């Protein structure tokens, strides 16, 4: 009886460890996408809408952050956490891991859109063009691989 209880306890600990590991992976993926969302929408998007004033340094920093973070997508999304972040608004579709090659193919066009505008944005009109170009490439992936949870 003690052996059965010990074995069952071991399986429960293993299961809990796997769930915690999956949640850690899901949170890492979510944090990466949130960082990109901050640069894209909380900074660039708000400037484009006129919600915050145009500021060149903030634009340059946001573009640099996007460039750095987009390069991490394929690696960060290699493990499949098989669960969503608790209380998240958006999550990752299992389609990512069912068709990882297609998912990964969406990254270079985003990188190209960023590279095409980097260092060339000098005013709000240029920022509007850059925002649309980058956002359109982001949407190519989001339409297939992002889930609205709430």
Helix content estimate: over 70%
Individual helix count: 7
CATH topology: Four Helix Bundle (Hemerythrin (Met), subunit A)
Find the CATH superfamily: Cytochrome c/b562
Estimated radius of gyration = 19 Å
Please identify the structural class as seen in this structure.
mainly alpha
How many domain modules? 1
CATH-scheme architecture: Up-down Bundle
Sheet with most strands: 2 strands, antiparallel
Distance between the termini: 45 Å
* Low-pLDDT segments, ≥5 res: 11-18
What is the chain-wise order of helices and strands?
HHHEHHHHE
Approximate shape? elongated
Mean pLDDT: 90
Q: What's the total number of strands?
A: 2
CATH class: Mainly Alpha
Strand order of the largest sheet: 1-2
Task: Walk me through what this model shows.
With 150 residues, the chain is mostly helical. The protein has one domain (2-148): Cytochrome c/b562 (Four Helix Bundle (Hemerythrin (Met), subunit A)), CATH 1.20.120.10. Helices cover 73% and strands 4% of the residues. It has seven helices and two strands. A two-stranded antiparallel ribbon has the order 1-2. The longest helix has 48 residues, at 2-49. It comes from Bradyrhizobium jicamae. Residues 1-21 form the signal peptide. Keywords: Electron transport, Heme, Iron, Metal-binding, Signal, Transport.
């Amino acid at each position: 009886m003690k052996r059965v209880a010990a074995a069952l306890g071991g399986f429960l600990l293993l299961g809990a460890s796997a769930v915690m590991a999956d949640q850690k992976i899901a949170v890492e993926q979510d944090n990466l996408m949130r960082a990109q969302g901050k640069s894209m929408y909380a900074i660039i998007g708000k400037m484009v809408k006129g919600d915050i004033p145009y500021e060149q340094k903030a634009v340059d920093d946001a573009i640099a952050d996007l460039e750095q973070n987009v390069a991490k997508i394929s690696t960060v999304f290699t493990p499949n956490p098989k669960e969503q972040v608790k209380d998240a608004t958006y999550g990752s579709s299992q389609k990512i891991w069912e068709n990882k090659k297609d998912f990964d193919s969406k990254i270079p066009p985003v990188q190209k859109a960023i590279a095409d505008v980097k260092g060339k944005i000098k005013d709000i009109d240029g920022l509007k063009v850059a925002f649309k170009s980058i956002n359109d490439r982001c949407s190519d992936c989001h339409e297939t691989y992002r889930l609205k949870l709430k």
